[in-house]
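Tokens for chain A. Residues wanted.
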């Protein structure tokens, strides 16, 4: 099975979140990424923008820039991708219950509930 690759901006944003995590600020940075999202492949998550987001959150920008510029967190992301590949995860969100993947096609509460109820029978 070939390893799935993710687009550069997605990759960079994941690495940037891990760089923020090094400063104990993962969730704040995570939220900032979602606040700034403007669509796929439109240039929102370029490295300069990711650095700006870190500055907006008052992270240590020198440490953050070094982290993102050297791809220091790449291994963490590669491990996450390998684990997703191993588990057959090919979309987000994905749900697992007791080691079994739920096949949910919509986040509509009714469909989610029906799928979950069938899964438990």
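Reply:
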């Amino acid at each position: 099975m070939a390893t799935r690759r993710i687009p550069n901006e997605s990759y960079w944003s994941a690495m940037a979140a891990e760089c923020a995590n090094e400063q104990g600020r993962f969730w704040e940075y995570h939220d900032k990424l979602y606040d700034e999202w403007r669509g796929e492949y439109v240039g929102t998550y370029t490295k300069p923008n990711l650095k700006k987001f870190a500055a907006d959150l008052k992270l240590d920008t020198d440490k953050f820039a070094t982290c993102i510029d050297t791809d220091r967190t790449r291994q963490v992301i590669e491990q996450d991708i390998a684990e997703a590949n191993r588990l057959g995860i090919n979309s987000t969100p994905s749900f697992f219950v007791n080691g079994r993947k739920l096949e949910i096609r919509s986040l509509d509460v009714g469909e989610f509930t029906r799928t979950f109820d069938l899964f438990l029978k």
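Residues 1-5 have pLDDT under 50 and may be disordered. The CA atoms of residues 26 and 98 lie 27 Å apart.
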